[in-house]
Specification:
The chain is an alpha+beta fold and 468 residues long. The chain has three domains: 10-80, no CATH class; 89-185, Beta Barrel (OB fold (Dihydrolipoamide Acetyltransferase, E2P)), CATH 2.40.50; 200-467, no CATH class. It is 59% helix and 11% strand. It is built from 19 helices and nine strands. The chain has helices at residues 10-29, 33-54, 57-80, 165-170, 195-211, 216-225, 233-241, 252-268, 273-290, 295-312, 319-333, 337-340, 342-356, 358-368, 374-398, 405-412, 415-432, 437-440, 442-458, and strands spanning 96-103, 108-110, 113-123, 132-137, 148-156, 174-178, 182-185, 400-402, 465-467. Strands 1-3-4-6-5 form a five-stranded mixed β-barrel. Strands 8-9 form a two-stranded antiparallel ribbon. The radius of gyration is 25 Å and the shape is globular.
Length: 468
């Protein structure tokens, strides 16, 4: 067990560890639950006898909590599995259907079509059905998040190709697809409470586009909001070759800057700890929802809230305990994340690498580099630690790893917190002083231009990316 873990609230944390183990192992043992139950009961009896004889009931309590967590993880995963009935839209896969629904995702341009998700309300003939359908349709008429639509199409099941597309969509509760869907407005006002937030984000993105030219503008928005769909495929490819796609995903950088910056301002204004915690928590939640609830942002948001809470109540936070609680909490909400969401896996593995591998790597680098270059060893050790931690998942899922990533990260990653902070400050100023927007956004423009210039050069060598 990592040092510093389980000293407080150890029983609950053991339950969480057992829960994570149960979720992780369910796909392997789902056909052997009877034998697993028999095995656990046997161990339950053996451990109870041993603990009673040795008069160390704490051992028994700890093991029982882990086993209960393990069983709970299996049960939660089983509850998340989908078995369609006549009330589910995917029950009608293979049939032509017509239904009313609400757009619950921001439309994404894919080649000459638009991809969006629609939550089904009912069939046009009045029969109540539920579920989410992923649609491909014409870009026009233009649709937005929250629009009520009528849909006519033929339902299809997701097909697995190079990866498990069915499992990938299942984490979003999507089990059916519609290609060449015919949509028309249902002439109903949007009812989703998130519509206002999405429109607000779109205004921010438009403000960035107006004041920063392309392709720099298409890099600024993903760094702030994590959506890289609008970036040219060639640019996305060079970011992938240099191992820098993570800067276009909302991460702990963004959430930490938001939390620390807002917390500092509120404390400076004289607010109490509890008020600062409440306002910061609300802001983090709104931001995570605003960026589309990606796994990395959810992880960073939950961990930030837990750490702020520990400061609010005056208790020292142990990072490994917060990681365990965050992982268990996100899996309780959606147990399919562990197996189906690569972003969730990479987010936690990178964090664990930073915690446990970076100190070791940094000690080695400090002996190689001059002490005056301590800043360089810190950046390089962090890059190597995160890459080592995530390489198994990257190789398994993509069959490739960037060899030039350490150098690219040294040249770019240090700039991202500064870039994010400068851009956040520029946004309200540009909104207040629209005539000076181009000048206000100049620092962001030059930083984005520098990042693109670096990755363009580093992506050129044939050996930059290793394919396995």
């Amino acid at each position: 067990m990592p040092e510093g873990a389980l000293k407080k609230g150890g029983v609950f944390l053991l339950f969480c560890l057992g829960f994570i183990a149960g979720v992780a192992l369910y796909p392997l043992i789902k056909n052997s639950l009877f034998y697993l139950s028999l095995f656990l009961v046997s161990w339950f009896i053996i451990i109870f006898i041993y603990s009673y004889v040795k008069k160390k009931l704490i051992i028994f309590i700890n093991i029982v909590c882990f086993i209960l967590g393990f069983i709970s993880g299996i049960w939660r995963y089983e509850m998340a599995l989908h078995y369609p009935t006549k009330l589910d839209i995917d029950y009608y896969i293979g049939q032509s259907v017509k239904f009313y629904g609400e757009v619950i995702s921001e439309p994404k341009l894919k080649d000459k079509t638009v991809e969006l998700d629609v939550r089904v309300n009912k069939f046009i003939d009045g029969q109540l059905v539920k579920g989410i359908v992923r649609l491909r349709t014409n870009p026009f008429p233009q649709l937005f998040y929250g629009d009520q639509v009528k849909v006519a199409c033929r339902l299809q099941a997701p097909e697995n190709t190079e990866f498990n597309y069915q499992r990938y969509l299942a984490r979003y509760n999507i089990y059916s697809l519609c290609f060449n869907a015919k949509l028309e407005s249902a002439d109903l006002a949007p009812t989703n409470v998130l519509v206002g937030l999405i429109k607000f984000k779109q205004k921010i993105i438009n403000l960035i586009k107006i004041n920063i030219g392309e392709p720099e503008a298409s890099l600024v928005s993903p760094i702030l909001f994590g959506a890289s769909e609008e970036i040219d495929d060639d640019i996305v490819n060079i970011f992938r070759r240099t191992g820098l796609t993570h800067i276009m995903a909302v991460s702990g950088f963004n959430v930490s800057i938001l939390a620390l910056g807002l917390g500092y301002v509120l404390f400076a204004c004289g607010f109490s700890r509890r008020i600062v915690f409440s306002l910061t928590t609300i802001t983090i939640i709104v931001y995570v929802v605003l960026v589309g609830l990606p796994a990395s942002a959810i992880r960073a948001g939950v961990m930030s809230i837990l750490m702020i809470y520990s400061l609010t109540v005056g208790r020292l936070a142990r990072i490994i305990n917060i990681i365990i609680l965050t992982a268990a909490g996100t899996l309780i909400v959606n147990p399919l994340l562990l197996a189906a969401d690569i972003g969730w896996q990479l987010s936690f593995l990178a964090l664990l690498g930073l915690i446990y591998l970076q100190p070791l790597i940094n000690k080695v680098l400090e002996k190689i580099l001059f002490k005056k270059l301590n800043w360089l060893s810190q950046i390089l050790s962090a890059t190597l630690a995160a890459q080592i931690g995530t390489t198994p998942v990257t190789l398994y899922n993509f069959g490739q790893v960037s060899l030039i990533s350490p150098l690219a990260n040294i040249l770019v990653v240090w700039l991202i917190p500064v870039f994010t902070a400068v851009t956040i400050v520029a946004l309200p100023l540009a909104a207040i002083l629209p005539g000076l927007g181009n000048i206000i956004f100049l620092p962001s423009f030059f930083m984005a231009k520098y990042v693109i210039w670096v990755v363009t050069i580093l992506a050129q060598p044939d050996w930059a990316m290793l394919h396995i």
